[in-house]
Design a protein that fits this description.
Layout: H1 8-42, E1 57-63, E2 66-76, E3 79-88, E4 91-103, E5 106-113, E6 124-129, E7 133-137, E8 146-153, E9 156-165, E10 168-180, H2 188-192
Antiparallel strand pairs: 1-2, 1-10, 2-3, 3-4, 4-5, 5-6, 6-7, 7-8, 8-9, 9-10
């Protein structure tokens, strides 16, 4: 069988075909790149902290020994401030303060408890968050390692702390009901009980 001879026309045709093919390939690739960039732009998630704004207000956890309150206030678009406290006669006794902070693409739950961790804050990174639930984790902490809030209804939630303590898995739940939604809707009893030394809204409840 005679061997095919590579003529100058062959090389010209091959080069032209190859260039045409390359240009045809470039167009879909460019479109794909543009499509990916566009999809990434339109699918960029909003700040996770916005999904936590349903926490705003004053929440009450009734126990046999009395009520425990947790209040949340919006400090900025990147931070919510919370505190847990009890009321004793005319005094407000705060035992925990909490910062919920958006740092770039990450959300952190940072509680400070006076008699724990030498009074220093502990950082819990968001593990999951939605319009109905949020959970924060710190596997290096002694207890708890996981803190979560689950929205049950418009004005009810269950807070939960869990983890390993003493080699055993433990969990505590705290059902809460919202008694005020915001500073503007706080009732007269809440205003009357407001601590004079605390300028932050939601300092106390009833």
């Amino acid at each position: 069988m005679p061997r095919e001879v590579a003529t100058p026309y062959y090389y010209y045709y091959r080069k032209r075909t190859c260039n045409t093919f390359i240009h045809m390939k470039r167009l879909p690739v460019a479109l794909v790149v543009i499509a990916i960039a566009f999809c990434n732009w339109i699918s960029l998630p909003g700040k996770s902290i916005r999904k936590a704004e349903w926490l705003l207000g004053i929440w009450e956890n009734k126990t046999p020994k009395g009520s425990i309150y947790e209040s949340w206030n919006k400090i900025s678009d990147d931070e919510l401030f919370g505190k847990s406290y009890i009321l004793k006669e005319k005094d407000t006794i705060v035992f925990e303060s909490i910062r919920l902070v958006q740092e770039k693409d990450s959300l952190f739950y940072i509680p400070t408890v006076g008699n724990q961790n030498d009074g220093l804050p502990v950082r819990f990174a968001v593990k999951r968050i939605s319009d109905m639930e949020m959970a924060f984790e710190n596997l290096q902490h002694d207890f708890p390692q996981l803190i979560s809030y689950t929205r049950i209804g418009a004005d009810s939630l269950v807070a939960e702390i869990s983890g390993i303590k003493g080699g055993q898995e433990r969990k505590q739940t705290f059902p809460m009901r919202r008694i005020t939604i915001s500073r503007n809707s706080a009732n007269d009893k809440s205003k009357a009980a407001l601590s004079k030394g605390d300028r932050r809204p939601f300092a106390v409840a009833r």
